Fold these 3 entries.
Entry 1:
Amino acid sequence: MNKAQLVEAVALDANLTKIEARKAVDALIRVTVQSLREGERLTITGLGTFSVQQKAERVGRNPRTGAPVKIPPRKVIKFRPTVDIE
């Protein structure tokens, strides 16, 4: 499902126009991104928890040459689902 399909599904499920649904989906995305940038954890009951995890610097390998490559530290988004889809 892409964003346009999500907007259409939200519009149908919540009995909203597609414009209203798009604004709601866009707002949810903006708030989620802003919270994660500030290092906050975002929990959506019935869906899951988004959090930011710090990855340490490490040494990787160039797959072509096998030479060691230094991979800098970085932040990644982690998602832990709370629902079982089965």
Entry 2:
Amino acid sequence: MIHVVATGTFDILHPGHLYYLEESRKLGDELSVIVARDANVKHKPRPILPEDQRLRMVQALKPVDHAFLGDLHDMFRPIAEIGPDIITLGFNQHFDEENLRQRLRSRGLNADVARIAGYPGPLASSSKIVEHILKTRGPPPPVGEKE
């Protein structure tokens, strides 16, 4: 059995998230997802939805067999507990694949790392969705300013 692990923040679920998880699931027989803890999201704005809600949404998705919150102090702890064969990264995740492989090996973890291509739709990231909402549903610009 090939066990795949996908990781991410999964804030404001959208088709890009579903695509990432479907493509990750195709690489193996079982998919576990590690959802980032609120306190650990430091490389982008804090999530809009709290971690327990993001976890619940990911757990409900068809491609997902198991979903867990990440560890507050050691991102490799859940990976060690799961023992995956493959770890997938989304197209816009900030990890360098080779560096991640080396860090995994130094912890005695022999998982391969695969990058999943981006979803081809125009609103394929939470930040683009927020931007679109603010542009189309936010307050109008002050008089005399262009959009």
Entry 3:
Amino acid sequence: MIHPTEHTPAAEHTPAAQRVPAAQDSPAAQHSPAAERTLVAQLAEAVGRTVTVCGWVQTSRLQSVMQFVLVRDHTGTVQVTHRRDGGELEAALDGLSTESAVRITGRVVANPVVKLGGLELLPEAVELLGRAEGPLPIDEQSGPEHRSDWRFLDIRRRPAAQLLFAVQTAFEAGLREYAYAHGCTELHTPKLMGTASESGAEVFKLGYFGGDAYLAQSPQFYKQMAIASGIDRVFEIGPVFRAEPSFTSRHATEFTGVDVELGWTRDVEDVQAFEEGMIAHALGLVAERYGQWIREELGVEVKVPTTPFPRITMADAQQLLRARGWDPEGAKVDLDPEGERLLAAHLQEQTGHEFVFVTHYPASIRPFYHARPADRPDLTLSFDLLWKGLEVTTGAQREHRYEVLTDQAAEKGMSLAPLTDYLNCFRYGCPPHGGFGMGLSRMLMVLLGLSSIREAVFLFRGPNRLTP
């Protein structure tokens, strides 16, 4: 039998082939083995049997004697091999266009000559389920904006894009496992609000039955309300909206936030300890399930961090950076992206750690609800977490005393009337508490070594993109 000697790079690599567990045969499948779908990753267990594979046509090599069609599903790629005989199968295979959706029933045969796992499928029936028009609107040379226009095709055709969603699922599962194991209740808070949820940030304003509403920039007020409700610990993984006209590789106008709030905290260290444990657990799960695939596909090693993470105060960070020549224009009290990268690189060199907490931010650049040290009212008991130089979370011990909270809001020139519902939570015995907010897409961006946040989401939303 003749076999092709050349394959496209995508055809030679089947990253998911050994990572999807075989499904248990249903009673129907036992009576009719070709009736149920078999995933490409399960074909090694089906040698000698007749099975049905559903997927997309990746490439075709239609020679004078032989027909070779590569069919891809979300678990890998298989070669369909057929000797021309002038029959219906020959005509059906000749008529398949690239990326058409097909259902092919055939016998699984072991053949060491075939590069795709040493297996091939000898077809007995070919069904065209959805024809793909040609030529395709994107190819390997398409730029990021054009690929975003055709995101569904971009994801389908690139194993690295498929990998993102498998990793995202495992990472979220790890976050949830840790939260549940440490007494957290999962919360779902409103995304329509009557007042802005963060001071100073841009908000999306929309009409609401003759009045105004805002898209939630954060579940901050609501998760604090949950603590006041007597729910000891809460977390939420949900949408966040920020009307920031930022055109950087790390900003989006809609993203998924991971928010945690912990009641009865003694100090901000309780919050930091919870977060570093949560991240280490989630990364451990990703490494266990997909570490090899990430290494093979992206050349990235998933490192499970040790705890505790290094900590440095903002004042010490600025002193360290300025001693090394960092001198940004106008950045007197905060770190710019360059400063964050330089700081993280220095501390990684010194400690071997990819993470660092920058703590004690000035009160002038933090929200009114961040608690302040008794002896340093100019500072806050807050932190940012940097991972490989990118800010991925912000957190703090909250101010839970009603009188202090109202004073701090007034100090920032905020009207108390729109905050009435929020402030009421602190009038009737609210315990000390603290929490943090994490950007899921930023975490995935750093984890997988992606160049832009638009690669770390299903469909990106930014100032210039509301489609598809």
